[in-house]
Amino acid sequence: MENENWMEVWNGKNQMVKLLGVNEYTERFGLTLTEEDAKLLLEDRRNSLVEKQRIEFGEGILPKLIEVFCDSPYIYQDNYVDTIGRLQDIFYEYKNESMDALTDDELIEKMQVAFNGECQGSTDYLEETILEELARNIRVGGERFLHESRRRRAVEDDIL
């Protein structure tokens, strides 16, 4: 272990435990991660963070993505790991593209609504159409667009 950063090793084990812990919740939707699946997703996370030049502290976004998307009618055991890995990559990309103007929860909610709705489970359509338009609106409209979007969301919540 003399060549390994003990903090990285500890953090990696901690993330693995947390990621496998979501199985307790996702099993009711017929979805489970194996240890190998979790390792793959954590490796994808590391690669995506490097590629997108992002830093993430703590457990990361993976457990949250899994918990939000596991009830999707478009995710089943055979495509579970690939879809979550792709959604994770899209999340990091659009955190950058939206200039971090959206909170993690706001971006995940927009992703989930579009993925289960208009995109009908297509990660390509989600990325190339829906989120591209959202990011463009944020870059062009800035705070005014975000304020208006959040106000509309609050009104919708009051109605429901």
Description:
By secondary structure, the chain is mainly α. Helices cover 71% and strands 0% of the residues. It has 7 helices and no strands. The radius of gyration is 17 Å and the shape is globular.
Describe the structure in brief:
By secondary structure, the chain is an all-alpha fold. Helices cover 71% and strands 0% of the residues. The longest helix has 37 residues, at 123-159.
Tell how many strands the DSSP assignment holds.
0
Described by strand count, sense and barrel closure, the largest sheet is:
none
Order of helices and strands: HHHHHHH
Strand content: under 5%
Shape: globular
Number of helices: 7
Task: Report low-confidence residues grouped into runs of 5 or more.
Answer: none
The pLDDT mean sits at 87
Rg (CA only)? 17 Å
Decide which structural class fits the backbone. Answer: mainly alpha
Write the layout of secondary structure elements.
Elements lengths: L5 H16 L1 H4 L8 H17 L10 H8 L10 H18 L6 H13 L6 H37 L1
Helix pairs in contact: 1-3, 3-5, 5-6, 5-7, 6-7
Offer a few descriptive terms.
160 residues, mainly alpha, 71% helix
